[in-house]
Amino acid sequence: MRYYKPIEIARELHISTSALRHYESWGVVPAPDRAPNGYRLYTKVHLAYFRCLRAMFPAFGVGLTCQVLRLIQNGDVDTAFWLVNKEQANLHHEKTAADQTLELLQNPELPLAANKKPKTHMSIGEVAAFTGVQDSAIRHWEKEGLISPERDPENGYRIFTPMHVRQILLIRTLRRTVYFLENMKEIVQAVEHHSIEQAKKVTENALVSIHQRNRQQFYGVHQLVELCQELGLQ
């Protein structure tokens, strides 16, 4: 059996040997045997584990990757693969929502709702009924700084315009994704300032990131399959 020195694996993966030891301490890589002098004796199995976790980290995150590799060590391949599958499904939902957002931005004259036209000024109850979004959610988004309706100077009630309606529909779409709040603010505020092109640019950049993560996920899954084959679990 061929043994690999820590430095050999570290060089291939462009990491430090101390990183290899950290991964061992996390319990995501089987503990290697030791030579009489105490040196670690890594095998092809260890190399496959290290390749897999390095490929999965950027695609699925450290937490899920570690969970998956611990399951693989216990021989629970099906649970491990379904966890990965769920994350891929989440990314697909994210892309669908981003595509819908971009479609809405690319068609600024798109009707806001079927056979309905928003009034020039609307109350929170009216805008909630028009958009199908609960008024509590609208208040929360206002608190988060995503929308900024004006107030009636006489009674203090919120006043919503068609622009706010479009923002609320955008947020309703974006909240189905894992966009960071700042991304949402950037898109929504661009709409508020009538900068549709800027909002489109932010959304398009988000889609580029989604495409990249999709490719990373497939590469991570490829390395996971390679690991299972090395372990005889396929």
UniProtKB/TrEMBL annotation:
Keywords: DNA-binding, Repressor, Transcription, Transcription regulation. SMART domains: HTH_MERR. It comes from Paenibacillus oleatilyticus. GO terms for molecular function: DNA binding. Residues 3-71, 121-190 form the HTH merR-type domain. InterPro entries: DNA-bd_dom_put_sf (IPR009061), MerR-type_HTH_dom (IPR000551), MerR_fam (IPR047057). This is MerR family DNA-binding transcriptional regulator.
